[in-house]
Amino acid sequence: MNKACPPPIETNVGGTQDVYYANSMIVPLPMMDHAAGIYMWDEDGKEYIDASSGPMVSALGHGNKRIISAMTEQANKLDYAYTRVARSRPNLEYAERLATLAGPGFERVHFASGGSEVVDNALKFLRQFSIATGQEKRRHVISLMPSYHGATIGSLAVGGNEDLAPFFDGFAITSETIPAPFSYRLPKGHSPESYAAKSAEALEIKIQELGPENVLAFIIEPIGGLSTGAIVPPDQYFRDIRNICTRYGVYLVFDEILCGAGRSGKFITAHHWPDALPDIIVKAKGLGAGYSPLGAMFAPAAMVDKLANLTGCEFSYSYNANPVSCAVGLAVLDEFERQNISERVGDVGNMLRAELEAIKERNQIIGDIRGKGLLLAVEMVSDKKTKKSLPDSCSPTDSIRKHGLKCGVMLYARPITGNRFGHWFMVAPPLNITKEECSELLRRTEASIIAFQNQLIANGII
After folding, report:
1. Widest distance between CA atoms in the chain
2. Which domains does the chain carry?
3. What are the tens digits of pLDDT across the range 134-170?
4. Are 248 and 212 in contact (CB under 8 A)?
5. Among positive and negative, which fits the CA dihedral 158, 160, 165, 167?
6. 3 state SS of 321
7. Is the dihedral of CA 155, 139, 229, 289 positive or negative?
8. pLDDT for the residue 3
9. CB 53 within 8 A of CB 59
10. Which H helix or E strand runs over 305?
């Protein structure tokens, strides 16, 4: 009996987390037993390659002994210290190292337990700063459609997902949205550059429409995550949105939760565009690399210190700057340096993308490969020439995941905003994956694509 099949394991009490998920989910969830490096094994002994890092969290793979040792050592020495009543050395050292990596303009670091919390913290900090400096009207947040920035009520509300309108109706205030700067399926007459310029223009129009004095922030993933399939806007787009935000006094927030911590080839994704730096950066996922929950907000010392002299920003969580998490973060940074991750990501990422492009040429349902470094997306289509999406009836994202599991590769995909923008899956393995391991990942991924393609042909869909 294969223990990897749905529905969730039934018990009278408890159950695995997926008891909360829709029963219509058709993708098996393997019961994992152990993991090492890029591999995971379920209780039946079946091996899988973790092709999307869990997703995009396990930046250094599984079972890193040096990180585990640092975690254990810190837990034995000082397991917890509440930041409202005490300080800890790991907090001090980790903040200093991160701020040094981020550079001028990001001298202060505020910690949280993950991405959703840290987005909330950034918005609360900016709102509190605006109130304390006599700009009480600044309350609107602008984001992209589609986009995703977390799963708390606050962070979920600033994501662009039209399907959640009934959920938020009368319950929470959602962000204003503008079109995301897509690069693949564009309106007639547009290039990626012209459409990105139009998206930037839409930001200025939206600010003017709301009244500049009423707009708090514009939040964006500089390299898209699952919600847009790893879109990478042209360089000019970042200069445009930076200039617009500066012109109207709107804070620019880079959500690097998914694309940061080395996944793009730079530890700070914003450093790809040094002439268009944001005001605030938020990071998570790869910071703790899956070994401990960890998120961080980077802010200018000038803002933090000014606010501290006025009202302060005293919203906190019990696990802010947890000593064990900070010790893990420090160990992760040590591993990044020891393994020369930034250089490896550039080298291996180029190889992985080139091979995915070759897979695209060999298979009729792959329309686009996009992304940067080791954050890549593969878009599936029914017609390459017209870029027509696959029909929802064949459940493209769930189906490719099912075929992936059969072929021993864990791919990350799910329906996004009613599939109005297309169907894609992510390829984002641990950052220390070797080229040899990439070859095996690619072999299993192409086998999954071919299996799904054959299914579509057999059913007369393509």
Report:
1. 68
2. 17-60+340-458 (3.90.1150.10), 65-338 (3.40.640.10)
3. 999 999 999 999 999 999 999 999 999 988 999 999 9
4. yes
5. negative
6. coil
7. negative
8. 47
9. yes
10. helix 301-310
